[in-house]
Amino acid sequence: MAEEVILLDFWPSPFGMRAMIALREKGVDFDLRKEDALSNKSPLLLEMNPVHMKIPVLIHIGKPVCESLVIVQYIDKTWGHGSPLLPSNPHERAHARFWAGYVDKKVGQVVRAVWTSTGEAQEAAKKEYIECLKVLEGELGDKAYFGGERFGYMDVSPILFYSWFYAFEASADFSTEEECPKLVGWAKCCMQRKSVAKSLPDHHKVYDFKLELKKKL
Q1: Of 187, 128, 179, whose CA–CA distance to 161 is shortest?
Q2: Rounded to whole angstroms, what are the CA distances from 68 to 81, 123, 125, 173, 189?
Q3: Per-residue pLDDT of the chain (217 residues; tens, 9 = 90+)
Q4: What does DSSP say about strands 31-34 and 57-60: parallel, antiparallel, or unpaired?
Q5: In this structure, are residues 105 and 69 in contact, taking their beta carbons and an 8 Å threshold?
Q6: Domains defined along the chain, listed by start
Q7: pTM value?
């Protein structure tokens, strides 16, 4: 009997995309349970993540794993078949975790400011957002992927923003490709992978969701 693997997710959530990409990279069959994470959280979600009550939550043989980066690391360790997502070298592994943390703590914070603010505040947020992307682009350099020639943890971490690029651009009137062509080229390369293409929603659909959400807020 196959192990039961359930992923609780909300379709526009970038963090849920991470978990799906990792599962698909490892060839893990999973049951995707769609949540309404904004207004109607299921009893299962509240039971499995009583602390933060947020998606994504990976449920493996009845036990929950929460927080997207933790989930990716768990998947990488639990299902050893296929290419590893995290490097085996301790320094390279620490390096990958550092940049994943940068994406969540720095880029994620600025992203929220871009689409929730207006006027001068949005202009300032847009400038900082582009600067953050340029820092990532500098780390990427001329490599195919952040870790070199192989798709891995450092790619799973930031690729989630690709489906939101259009929404940010339309909101703040700029072009990510003009500002950071290498980063967009990397994202398009990642989209050639089935694990990524199947996990990221259409960017126009994300934009429409963002408009509706902004009205409610």
Answers
A1: 187
A2: 20, 29, 25, 30, 22
A3: 357 999 999 999 999 999 999 999 999 999 999 998 777 899 999 999 999 999 999 999 999 999 999 999 999 999 987 789 999 999 999 999 999 999 999 998 898 888 788 899 999 999 999 999 999 999 999 999 999 999 999 999 999 999 999 988 988 899 999 999 999 999 999 999 999 999 999 999 999 998 888 777 6
A4: unpaired
A5: no
A6: 5-78 (3.40.30.10), 90-216 (1.20.1050.10)
A7: 0.93
